[in-house]
């Protein structure tokens, strides 16, 4: 009997449960679809080692966190449903039901709605997960070779676990209401509305303006200071503290802004008499002021959550775009490996008493010959091999570099990009390369030769537009370099952005290298800093097999492992150590894997948070419309047009839906300006299309909640208007 009654209640109160059901079903859909990543990775043909396990662990942990957010949201949704049905539950008790029986009815109803949400969400999640295989393949840039329908038991299990937790929390909240609320309060719930505290308009206006001032001040601090990541090492703690203060300022400013907004809004519109007294504007403004008074804190929180959602998606996509752009620019060869040279000479006695002499080499180490001794047959596998030798700018017999970036910036009156204070070129000087070596490198890349006079120099870089623009300003300003009493002038006014990568890397390693005539390098006696060997495989060669052979060589002999395998001369002295080696295919695989992971996490977090914010606002508005239905009925009884009433409701809900979104977007634009300036250090990017598409999807979901809320509000109002006032 109780179960039958609960089923009838759910059918009758379907409108009240609609937002609850929709949000819960969306949560189940997203939870299931994103947790099928392990199967999607396999079907999409992603071969990156460990990617499946890492993505599964990350998304499982993130799902638990987002499920907690969703649980809090469902409790809030229950508040609206219970508010609408308190009199009904009181009537049950008047008719003779015990509180336990009422609680069982509520448990059955919650179970029915949660079960329906689970079934609907799983069905939609299974369908979405099939489509997401293609999205996953696109993110990781792979081809789907064996697509088939799949269902993930593990994703289903974690989704059911999350839903059960949400169900239990919602049920406990409902039972608490029945157990604690008195019968007289239940029966009189329809006649009692949430108390609204009026605030002094002048005081509210001052608070609002103070909040706005705090927000603007925080914006200025952030634009000036940047992120703590860009601070020098010795100032990182101070920068972190300032960033924390800036964060507190924007948070407190947002809360104060919304707290005082209602009074300021009311006062401003009251001064505009022609607008204030037109139609139902007075009613609309007062309703808005009352609602903002009540939910000012939640509006501030929603604005901050939307700020986090927008920033995470846009920042993540900007990083992905920068990495994609850098990948094309910073992989000049099919394979590259590095040798790092000693920058000082000393003698070290080991624990076993063996003495090792560390020296600075006078000639570059022949990397190709060393690899050939290890069994690499370059004649068989390579169509092009080139070694690039980089020198430090410290003259022989001296300790300080002769080419310093800060000196060039100061004399050319150029601005140093944020984040460059601690770059290698700042405290070690700018390294140099011989013109002859650079021209051999250009020939290897298929580029035109560079011609410099004896008194000219040029700068190369592979880290993107920001540093290129800085060096372009230095070159175009005609900034001179004096070496050994000889003054050198720029040989060109621009950096070639495609001819500065001397080894394979993800985001670029050449933050600035000066190309000098050979005679100048010889005269200054610059010490060797590092050498890079670039190898291009023959056309038609089995690149994967060659990559595997190089990997085996590195693991067996320590070549290219990046763990410091020493390089010794015939006399036993140590001249340096092997650096990192990497092939183009491995680099592309790593970058694609990282980009896919970042994109996945950002979209997952952003979508769930946007849905949560939209659902909270929707529930708030439905609750307030139910509270104000009597006022609307009075307006109808005195002759107000129904269209005017609907317009008033639309305007109120549009302000309350999109004003927090506007504030969150403003916060995001300022934060992204700082973040993007940092990302630009590693390469230019274009995120318009990708971010635009994601934002459109988010806005459709957010706007969908707005449209649904407005439609349900009109139904509540029209139902109230049809009921004659009998009091």
TrEMBL record:
UniProt entry keywords in alphabetical sequence: Cell membrane, Membrane, Transmembrane, Transmembrane helix
Its membrane topology: Multi-pass membrane protein
Localisation per UniProt entry: Cell membrane
Record field: transmembrane: 17-38, 58-77, 111-135, 155-179, 200-219, 243-269, 290-310, 597-619, 655-681, 687-708
Main subcellular localisation: membrane
Domain of life, source organism: Bacteria
Gene Ontology cellular component annotations, sorted alphabetically: plasma membrane
Presence of the UniProt keyword Cell membrane in the record: yes
ABC3 transporter permease C-terminal domain boundaries: 63-180
Pfam family, one: FtsX
PANTHER family reported for this sequence: ABC TRANSPORTER PERMEASE, ABC TRANSPORTER PERMEASE-RELATED-RELATED
Protein name per the record: FtsX-like permease family protein
Organism: Collinsella acetigenes
Taxonomic path: Bacteria, Bacillati, Actinomycetota, Coriobacteriia, Coriobacteriales
